[in-house]
Predict the 3D structure of the following.
Amino acid sequence: MSEDDEPVDPETAVAELGERLGAIPPRFAPIRERIEPVGEALEPVEESLEAAETEDDLDEVEAELEPVAEELSELREAVDDVEGDLEAIREEFDELELPEDENEEDDEDGSGDDAETEDGEDDAETEDGEAEVGEDDPIAAFEADLESVEADLESVEADLEALDGELEALEGRVDDVESGVEQRRGPYAEDVIGEIDDAATEIETTRWTEEGHAELIEAVDGFLSTVDPLLGAELSLLDDGEDVPARLVASLGAAGEAVEADGLDPDDDAGVIAELLEATDGLGSDLEAATRWDDLEVREQLRREGFYDVLDHVKDFPPEWSAIKVHEKRGNVEMVTLALESFDSDFMQEHCLEALGRMGEEAAIEPVLGLAKRRDEVAITALGRIGVADDTVVQTLTNFVDSNPPLQRPTFLALGRIGAEEAVEPLVEQLTADDEDVRSWAARALGLIGDTRTIEPLSTVLAEDEDDTVRASAAWALNRIGTAEAIESVAQYADDRSYLVQVEAERASI
């Protein structure tokens, strides 16, 4: 309510609610009059469904049901409208408040129950000592009106609930007919083709063992042998090429095309379609039983990949550690990466990451980056050692610049080693961090990057920072940048209070 709106008189409000409530029951009658005919119209549709045998019969059932469903939808809309209006009345009724009792205000002024009448006598009492309520008491009258409206409201709500129940019963019957039609349709040739396509996709997207390939061949060959006499399509297993999954996918593709070309009718060929679906179910079960790569234990997977072939004898325990060392020396990035992705061991993961970092091969970025994104400090260090300024790598590392010291240290170093100029601004901001170690790491990272834009902020750190280790790091960074301006800004500190800064100043003067 706005400040300009006049407050609604409670008595007026309850009278208006009573009028609106009185308009609701007449709306029930036309709805009830339509409900019974809808129920009667639904009965022959249900009988038609019971007698339906073909797809055409089911089409007729749907056609018969459509006008009944439309009529029922209109009735539902009408009931929902009534329900919405009734809910609004209920909400407004619940918010009504009793008007203020003027006698209570008189009590506060001292002129209430204890006050005497003008002729000095108290208010009259009944014989049993209770005060007699005047017939024109506005509070009592208002309460009576409220009780009357509430009783009517509850009665109308009960009528609406009963009406809604009748409607829900009809809607349930319509739903039963619709689901009955759906259940009794088919099966269709499209269902068979879909199952064949699913099997082909599983074969193509799953990694199988050698035993699994043999099992797949047997499964698909058996499926084609079952399907061929049903379609008369002369299906057989394709044997072109060495890629087993590709051969099997192509063979199943030919089977799917044969099913489609046969033009199977869901009524006339229902038996054939059912047998084809039974065959696809068998194919699915055979694929489920075939040996997948994921079914093998990790060491068995690595053994089959040749990971352990480099070991003449084991120098370290576990043997995987020895194998990683040999693969690192031989530059076998793919084998170290395979071990990184295979072993669920912090120990092995750390050694794999360190090996990949030392190898410095760009091919190792993707698996290392995946771990770095999960805030793995060893992976972040490895990215720096690999040293490729890939956009995704730089962005990932830059996201950690403003994190916490344990993560900031390897992040700053990695960005410095990569030479990530995109990280200059966030690193410069860290020159004013509260933690002196963070300021020092940031200064050295900026020195490794070598961007001349950092000469001024590094010179400011050298001149003003309270921590001498941070100042020495800034001096080292300026020497690392190596321009005349940078070296000159360091050389003037030959007599500095800090020995570390003096050492950097002497280097600048050489």
Summary: Residues 189-294 form one domain. The chain is about 70% helix and 0% strand. The chain has three domains: 10-98+140-184, 189-294, 388-509.
